[in-house]
Amino acid sequence: MPAAAWALLAALAALSAIGTWLSRRYALNRNLMDAPGERRSHTVATPRGGGVAIVATVLLGCAYAAWLWPQQGMAIAMFATGLVLVAGIGWWDDHRPLSAALRLLVHAVAASLLAALVYRVHHNPWLAALSWLATISLINIWNFMDGINGLATSQAMLVALGFAGFLPGPLRWACLVLLVACAGFLPFNFPRARIFLGDVGSGALGYLVAALFAWCCLATDVTPWLLLIPISAFAIDAGFTLLSRMLAGERWWQPHAQHFYQRWVHTGRSHTVVTLAYALFSIVAITIAWFGGTLRTGGQVGLALGWYVAASVLWLTLRKGLR
């Protein structure tokens, strides 16, 4: 990329940091606080809603991309509309709790926009359906997994880095924008949390990760199976935890503290140790995924399945050890 693009990325990171600082002041003035509780992993009341700075930064990146590639203006606008919908309903929910049904409806509309964009580019209904399902799932997975300092943001950064490794230079712009937007927010949330993402941020990160997943499906020859490896840390923890709650007849959509990362923190481990452990797991996953990119389709599918089986066994073993 040209030097001007790198300078813009640095400016976006700075704007994200400034926006996070401003959103913290706003949250304190409006008393938008997450109070400690048995279903939470923090011990002091903390402002929420800082993820709005990440959303605003990504939208600025979209504006630059639309100026640089005006022929893609409609596609960028569709993507940005979906992001605004997800972030908007999250922002509303941060101020006044909404029903799960209403949030899911808005998420479905945003996912439909992204799926329509995928179909518009590729004319593959199966890929469009996969993108829709991935978007709905990842929005909620990132929301469920946003429970300790730095976890959701650092995982989004690592996934963006992982997906960037599959893309040619100019097409990495979307990954880099997400990475620097998160980098501006992270110092306010890790290792000590002075503000949380809030639903506006966690849902938006899930949508953005889903968009990068769809982007890699469209712009590379990598099978979608292989692209599931970089998101495996969250997919496995959220997937198995929700499945176990469903099998137990619990209201799986309600807040809880049963994810592995939450149980680990409740044993006395610090947020920093747990977040870094998840980061290490994802770094290994991304490295394996990059290696898999050199394989043929059958090898990529086999590698992805093997990784998920091995990671699932690890999750079950570690979770059993925390009982």
Question: What are the main properties of this structure?
Answer:
1% strand; 13 helices; 73% helix; globular; two-stranded antiparallel sheet; 323 residues; mainly alpha
Give structural notes.
α2 (51-68) runs antiparallel to α3 (73-95) and α6 runs parallel beside α12. The protein is globular and about 50 Å long. The protein has a two-stranded antiparallel ribbon with strand order 1-2. It has 323 residues and is mostly helical. The model has no long low-confidence stretch (mean pLDDT 93). The N and C termini lie far apart (50 Å). The protein has helices at residues 3-30, 51-68, 73-95, 100-122, 125-145, 151-164, 173-185, 198-219, 224-227, 232-247, 260-266, 271-292, 297-321, and strands at residues 33-34, 46-47. It has one domain (3-321). Helix content is 73%, strand content 1%.
Summarize the structure.
This protein is mainly alpha-helical and 323 residues long.
